Amino acid sequence: MAGFAERIDRYFGISERGSSFSTELKGGLITFLSMSYILAVNPLILSPSASGYSFDEIFTATALAAVISCLLMGLYARFPVALAPGMGLNAFLSYTICQSMGFTFEQGLMIVFLSGVIFFLVTVTGLRKNMLESIPSSLKIAISAGIGFFIALLNLYNTGLLVHGDGTALKIGDFSDPGVLLALFCIITTINFWYHKKWYAIPLSMAITWIIGVVLFYAGVTSDVGTIPRGDSISAITIPDLGLFGKVFTGFDMIPSGMMAAFVGALVSMFIVDMFDTTGTLLAVTRETNLSEGKSDAEFLHRPMIADASASLCGAVCGTSTTTSYIESFTGVESGARTGLMAVFVALLFAVALVFSGIFSTITSACTAGALCLVGLLMMKNIKDIEWADPVTSIASLITVFMMGLAGSITEGIALGFLAYTIGSAVVGRGREVSRTMWVLAVIFILYFAINAILY
């Protein structure tokens, strides 16, 4: 037994990095609890576009994608980052690609898969670093902030806290509705815990809100927005439903010629968002832990980048949105975790969760309202680092952020922001400063808008 423990220690470099088996276990547990909200949120977001598929199928796809991805990161890269279907990317698949653009869920999964293939090839060939450097940092920040705004706004609408207005786009919802008040309670509780720097802000707030909701259900309280959990449908243990596994291939229909422009636009946008999201998280964890040991970020992150690029394919194969590195891994890192063993423990916990879809299926949007608002807030916090003094950059960034939320489309937010930057740079005589990558993307997005205008 001692020999096995020594081999584990050497393989992951536990002692070498100043950690211990128990510290990695604690870090894995804390990280899992911090990101476990995705097991409830992902099915809620994907269900409107995944017609014909049950909560159990999407739940299983979510947990399974997380298991495989975390094992890839832990065993291959040996890096303390956990992965699961990403927030923002799931909303992009459901609300933009499927509901707005009109693709079927299976076609949407194929877009996820192909963007993952591109992401993997760009990573292993070394182009990933060059592409990241060719896009202005302010636009990268704006994309993340825009998705945060999109998530928060959509969350407020889905919980009834915002509704369509009379003469205005949106207005405050009906605060006399118990379901709306339950969602508001969840948001306030989550933000309060987070404000006091409690790592359990999200899981505890979800649990408290769910318990209150179940009590309200048994007390006969109803809600017009349908956000009170159904206490009569709770089942402790369920068998994982693999109905979505491989559906990207077996249920896929060819893309109609009239939708090719939308297909290319969605593919490019999915790839760009995934690249920025995962790379930003990996860089942040590396700098927080000082694990690079004198190596450059690009050199040290070579294996973690290959692992997360490979994991980006897992979501589509399992039947869910793109799998990405989670910034919630910081909670485990801050508790002392320093190796890939942490990610392996997270994978094991997601594997255990596979049999608890019956409990997670009773969690409503009111119970996850706090998690989504907090995630949206955290994604927007770096907006202060945008180069606001530069007119071209500031205008392009504002367009990117606001058009994502107000137009309800991540693709069109990115497209309009990139076009504003390239055209604006050319107008003020700075066209030569714009990278070739940006000009190529600008042409793609112009064709996307032009073809859509002709066809629709």
- Please estimate the helix content: 55-70%
Structural class comes to: mainly alpha
| Whole-angstrom Rg | 22 Å
Roughly how many Å apart are the termini?
Answer: 67 Å
Shape annotation: globular
The total of beta strands comes to 4
Mean pLDDT: 87
Spatial order of strands in the largest sheet: 1-4
Low-confidence stretches: none
Number of domains: 1
Layout of strands and helices, then pairs:
Layout: H1 2-12, H2 21-35, H3 38-46, H4 55-77, E1 83-85, H5 89-100, H6 105-124, H7 127-134, H8 137-158, E2 162-164, E3 170-172, H9 178-195, H10 201-218, H11 247-250, H12 260-289, H13 297-300, H14 302-318, E4 323-325, H15 329-334, H16 341-353, H17 357-360, H18 365-380, H19 391-407, H20 410-427, H21 436-455
Would you give an account of this structure?
With 456 residues, the protein is an all-alpha fold. The chain has one domain. It is built from 21 helices and 4 strands. The protein has helices at residues 2-12, 21-35, 38-46, 55-77, 89-100, 105-124, 127-134, 137-158, 178-195, 201-218, 247-250, 260-289, 297-300, 302-318, 329-334, 341-353, 357-360, 365-380, 391-407, 410-427, 436-455, and strands at residues 83-85, 162-164, 170-172, 323-325. The strands form 2 sheets. It has a two-stranded antiparallel sheet. Helix 10 (201-218) runs antiparallel to helix 18 (365-380) and helix 12 packs across helix 14. The longest helix is centred in the middle third of the chain and has 30 residues, at 260-289. It is globular. The mean pLDDT is 87.
